[in-house]
Amino acid sequence: MGGADEATTGSTRPRPARNRLLAAAARRFYADGVSATGIDTITAEAGVAKKSLYNNFSSKADLVRAYLDARHEEWLELYRLRLEQAHDPRAGVLAVFDAYADHAEAAYEHGFRGCGLLNAAAELPVGDEGRAVVRRHKEEVERLLAGHLERLLPDRPDRARARAEHLAFLLEGAMARAGLEGGSTRLRHARAMAADLLEQW
Fold first, then answer.
1. How far apart are CA 83 and CA 95, in angstroms?
2. In 3D, which of 23, 28, 49 has the Cα closest to residue 38?
3. pTM, to two decimals
């Protein structure tokens, strides 16, 4: 393939080929891993020519970074949807946990395998920009928790940040166990634990 449907006719219009490639990469990278997934597999699943991939991404590493950025944005959208139902700082904290559980409960080709960002980071070498993308995501999640806790503890910002780190560790541990077990149960347990802690704070 490689026709007009793959071209960008305006600077802000998305290119269908790029979208198909990202969707195919997301499925294959999550199901099979980054290293095990070759360019030929992605282009075949996307239904585009290999040349089309290199018209949209400079390399496989560039595609991996785009995939990681897209996963970050997907999680943020889950969080925003949950946040719309949150009317106080405690509910805001729990919205973060709910967004992770929503992620775990999505439909996956071979089942839930944990955090796609961490899975990818585990395959990338130290210093790879993809690992920096994942780190920024995890730091942003902790900042979101801290923001809600600073509203809950307005006179104790240091304590709010320390408790945000505590909850981030709880969340990440639950996510690791949930990935191993293939479901959201551990994340639901972590949410209940977080709710109990918030009542004590």
1. 6
2. 28
3. 0.88
